Structures are given as structure tokens and as C-alpha cells.
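Hi! If you just cloned this repository, the fastest way to understand the data is to look at a raw example. We've pasted two of them here, unedited. The first protein comes first, obviously.
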Amino acid sequence: MITKKILVTPGDGIGPEVTGQAIQVLKTVAPRFELQLELTEKPVGGAAYDLAGTPIPDETLEAAKNSDAVLLGAVGGPKWEPLDFSVRPERGLLKLRS
């Protein structure tokens, strides 16, 4: 079996629901491809801002760098629109891409 590390970032709004269903699909098909999944969940977007005051905490970035893949949920929403551009949930996506 091959082990794959996947970072799960549920995000905001419908993101947690969608990523939850995606995880169920991954868990269902993994054995058929002889894969073992090592799933780690970290915050991103508005959820991360609410928890840590930043759209993507350093621990989330570090986990992404140490993963084979990132399962990213929806990010942002009306709740965070009044925030300064520098800390808006979407800013976390830009850092994640780098």
C-alpha cells in the first residue's frame, strides 16, 4: 500500500459539507487503488481568521508543504467582506499557492 498525506482545509460556508463528502469518496475508493490516506485538517479562509486572526495560519501552510495533496473547501463569505483586504479570507488562497 502507498500512503498519501492529504491536508483537508474545509474553509467556509458550504466548504465543510463539500469536503466532508469528498473525504467519504476518497475513503471509499482508496482501497481499490491500494492507497492508505493520512488526513490532516487545518483551517483556512474566514474560519482561520476567526480562530487565529489570519486567513491562513503558519501551521496550515507548513502542513500543506508536507502533504501530497490539499483538499480545499470554499473560502470567504459575506461575514468577512468588511475586513481589510490584507486579511480577507481569499488572501489565504494566494499564500497557499506559493
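Ok, and the second one:
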Amino acid sequence: MVWDYSKLRGQIKEKFGTQAAFAKAIGISTTSLSLKLNNEREFTQAEINASVDVLGVPYSDVESLFFTQVV
């Protein structure tokens, strides 16, 4: 499946400014984050949890941020 991470990208830009700063905050490399946002790798449960925590969004937003399919 291919996921649409546009809402996640928007939250990252709004809260962190750069993908590099966000990647550091959740404990992964910038390269790893880029691969995940481009659907070449999958986010782990731990990375999703860390993302929600550092972005300060409710867990009810997980579906729209991480599990919206590209149509």
C-alpha cells in the first residue's frame, strides 16, 4: 500500500521547520525519515508513538497522519 503523508509533512513543517529536526526528535536519521515519507520503508509502532508525542497531536489523529491511502 502507498500512504499519503501530506498531513504528517504539514505537521512536521509547522512544529519543527525541517525534516532533519523532526527526525532527530524521534531518534531516527534524516535518511530513514525520508525513506519512510516516500513510502520506501514503513514507520514502526515506536516511531509512530514518538511522532505523536513530539508533534503534540492526539492519538486520534494517527489514522489521518499515518494511514491515509493515496487514491
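That's it. A detail worth noticing about the second one: The mean pLDDT is 98.
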